[in-house]
């Protein structure tokens, strides 16, 4: 999986730490992104169901589902941290500016980058997770559901397999929830709320692609080729007017 890309610069393999100890800077953003990439690459390689796909389909799935995995992971870790802002794996976090007393000021470049994304994440991902008291088992199963999503460039066999695998994990999640709640209707309602989280993640994914493109176009944050590639953009060409 790591052979898909050549990562420029240093990737830190130290422990993932979503502690929110300091305000996020552009360098922290890129470092945190790389840490998540390495974690994600190791995670998918350990999934037995993922190994059943062809090499070509594995590359498609791994690349397409990296960002959705990251949104769900960072939202869950933010929920656990109790921070009012998105927490990264290197101890940094970007505070949400909602007028709460004592909230530190975020880096202006990060504020511009996340713009509406942080409010959508906090309101539509972190808040529901907190309200439902999402546990680690539910989170892990939901990440599997999140991974096994049909992509247009999978092979025909891959599309059949990914849909079958996704349904199986949804059933696993339902059975686990059913053991936690009093009745089937409550379990179905809780499952539906979790599936809505994935819809929010899809919208955040598209929004983030646009944000990365805009940041790269105006050279506000110097994203490397790995980040640009995953977000489906090309390196910006120099304007003839400059």
UniProtKB/TrEMBL annotation:
Q: Name one Pfam family in it.
A: Hormone_recep
Alphabetically list the UniProt keywords: Receptor, Transcription, Transcription regulation
Question: Could you list the residue ranges forming a coiled coil in this record?
Answer: none
Q: Does the keyword Amino-acid biosynthesis apply?
A: no
Q: Does the keyword Transcription apply?
A: yes
Give the matching InterPro entries: C.elegans_NHRs, NHR-like_dom_sf, Nucl_hrmn_rcpt_lig-bd
Q: Which CDD domains does this chain map to? A: NR_LBD (cd06157)
Q: Where is the NR LBD domain?
A: 1-234
What PANTHER family does the database record attribute to this sequence? NUCLEAR HORMONE RECEPTOR FAMILY MEMBER NHR-4, NUCLEAR HORMONE RECEPTOR FAMILY-RELATED-RELATED
Which organism is the protein's source? Toxocara canis (Canine roundworm)
Q: What is this protein called?
A: NR LBD domain-containing protein
User: Sorted alphabetically, which PROSITE patterns does this protein's record hold?
Assistant: NR_LBD (PS51843)
């Amino acid at each position: 999986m790591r052979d898909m890309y050549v990562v420029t610069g240093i990737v830190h393999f130290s422990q993932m730490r979503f502690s929110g100890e300091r305000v996020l800077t552009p360098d922290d953003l890129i470092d945190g992104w790389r840490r998540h990439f390495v974690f994600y690459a190791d995670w998918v390689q350990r999934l037995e169901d993922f190994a059943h796909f062809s090499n070509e389909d594995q590359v498609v799935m791994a690349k397409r589902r990296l960002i959705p995995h990251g949104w769900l992971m960072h939202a869950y870790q933010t929920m656990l941290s109790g921070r009012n802002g998105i927490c990264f794996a290197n101890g940094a976090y970007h505070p949400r500016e909602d007028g709460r007393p004592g909230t530190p000021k975020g880096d202006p470049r990060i504020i511009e980058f996340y713009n509406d994304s942080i409010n959508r994440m906090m309101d539509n991902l972190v808040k529901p997770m907190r309200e439902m008291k999402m546990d680690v088992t539910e989170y892990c199963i939901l990440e599997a559901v999140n991974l096994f999503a049909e992509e247009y460039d999978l092979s025909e066999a891959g599309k059949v397999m990914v849909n079958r695998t996704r349904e199986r994990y949804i059933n696993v999640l339902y059975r686990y929830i059913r053991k936690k709640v009093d009745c089937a209707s409550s379990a179905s309602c809780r499952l539906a709320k979790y599936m809505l989280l994935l819809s929010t993640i899809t919208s955040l994914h598209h929004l983030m692609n646009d944000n990365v493109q805009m940041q790269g176009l105006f050279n506000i944050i110097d994203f490397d080729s790995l980040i640009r590639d995953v977000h489906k953009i090309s390196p910006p060409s120099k304007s003839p007017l400059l």
